[in-house]
């Protein structure tokens, strides 16, 4: 009977893992879509900046205008939103964003492989810490005392 109990437990564990990974993949896809949407908004904003600059130069001989300033502020806001979304995507994928070059790299890296800057040490994410604790609690006592 213990065989069936172990089988049931293993199937439940596998199913829970599959559900968790599916959720992670779905979340990452949603964030990527949000980033694409923001990039489209940013492109349109840049087009408006160029159009306004051209219009102002042609009509007034000056580039500066309140309309142009508003578009620049909007572009800065969109860029900030994209940065936040990239951070969320990196976190969802178990990565971090290099503070120096903006590259998405493994959260286990000590140095950025692209620019070489030393990354700040961060504590393990709570989800990983709890998963490690649960695994340790489920492990049979005989494996903990070996070595």
Task: Map the helices and strands.
Layout: H1 2-60, H2 66-92, E1 95-97, E2 104-106, H3 126-138, H4 141-145
Antiparallel strand pairs: 1-2
Helix pairs in contact: 1-2
Describe the structure.
The structure is a single chain. With 147 residues, the protein is mainly α. The chain has two domains: 1-93; 94-139, no CATH class. The chain is built from four helices and two strands; from the N terminus they run H-H-E-E-H-H. The protein has a two-stranded antiparallel sheet. A hairpin with a 6-residue loop joins strand 1 and strand 2 (104-106). Helix 1 (2-60) runs antiparallel to helix 2. The longest helix has 59 residues, at 2-60. Residues 123-147 have low confidence and may be disordered.
Shape: elongated
In total, the number of strands is: 2
Total number of helical segments?
Answer: 4
What topology, given as strand order, has the largest sheet? Answer: 1-2
Helix amount, in percent?
Answer: over 70%
Number of domains: 2
End-to-end gap:
32 Å
- Tell me, rounded to a whole number, the average pLDDT: 81
Describe the sheet with the most strands: 2 strands, antiparallel
Coarse structural class:
mainly alpha
Order of helices and strands: HHEEHH
Our Rg estimate from Cα atoms comes to 25 Å
Beta-strand residue percentage: under 5%
Note poorly predicted spans: 123-147
């Amino acid at each position: 009977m213990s065989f069936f109990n172990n089988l049931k437990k293993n199937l439940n564990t596998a199913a829970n893992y599959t559900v968790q990974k599916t959720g992670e993949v779905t979340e990452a896809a949603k964030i990527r879509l949000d980033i694409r949407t923001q990039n489209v908004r940013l492109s349109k904003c840049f087009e408006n900046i160029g159009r306004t600059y051209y219009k102002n130069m042609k009509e007034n001989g000056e580039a500066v205008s309140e309309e142009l300033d508003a578009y620049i502020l909007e572009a800065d806001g969109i860029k900030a939103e994209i940065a936040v979304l990239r951070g969320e995507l990196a976190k969802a994928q178990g990565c971090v964003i290099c503070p120096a070059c903006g590259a998405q790299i493994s959260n286990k890296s000590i140095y950025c492989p692209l620019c070489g800057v030393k990354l700040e040490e961060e504590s393990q994410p709570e989800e990983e810490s709890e998963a490690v604790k649960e695994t340790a609690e489920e492990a049979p006592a005989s494996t903990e005392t070996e070595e």
